[in-house]
Input
Amino acid sequence: MRRKITIGDGGNADLLRRIRVHGNFSEYTPICLILIYLLEVSAFSPTVIHILGITLFVGRLVHAWGFGSTPENMAGRSIGMVLTFAVIVGAGLLTIARLGFGLML
Output
């Protein structure tokens, strides 16, 4: 509203970067939350679920800060990506082990 742009990015580089930060969040966060949810409903350890949630939260904050900075802060963006992917891989493997193989973890 501040820049009087109602549709799209209006050619504004700052707004385009903000749109991509939001888009990146909406691309990766849902799968993490679904995997964490599957662990929770399977009565997985609350401590592990909290660790996954906190890691996701910190990773997304750091990624948004790094990606949204001008100039872009690659260290923040990279750390955020690593933390987010760690949640996806970790929660995915735990979900497969718990639900797929019926292991008592």
The two ends are 50 Å apart (CA to CA). The CA atoms of residues 20 and 104 lie 40 Å apart. Helices lie at 13-41, 46-68, 74-100. The mean pLDDT is 88.
